[in-house]
Structure to design on (60 residues):
């Protein structure tokens, strides 16, 4: 079963050079396989998607 596409509001994927330092550090942690903790800084769109996924999991 495939998940439906979810709009994040992003028009295009940013390159690492286009990211702000905080966003770049977050992406590097994700790329390294480090899971973010709830109180860690993360982009708002990422946080919304994560909360939506947890909510869906709770109802499955």
């Amino acid at each position: 079963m495939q998940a439906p596409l979810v709009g994040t509001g992003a028009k295009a994927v940013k390159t690492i050079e286009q990211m702000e330092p905080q966003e770049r550090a977050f992406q590097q942690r994700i790329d390294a396989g480090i899971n973010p903790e709830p109180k860690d800084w993360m982009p708002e769109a990422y946080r919304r998607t994560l909360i939506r996924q947890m909510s869906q999991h709770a109802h499955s």
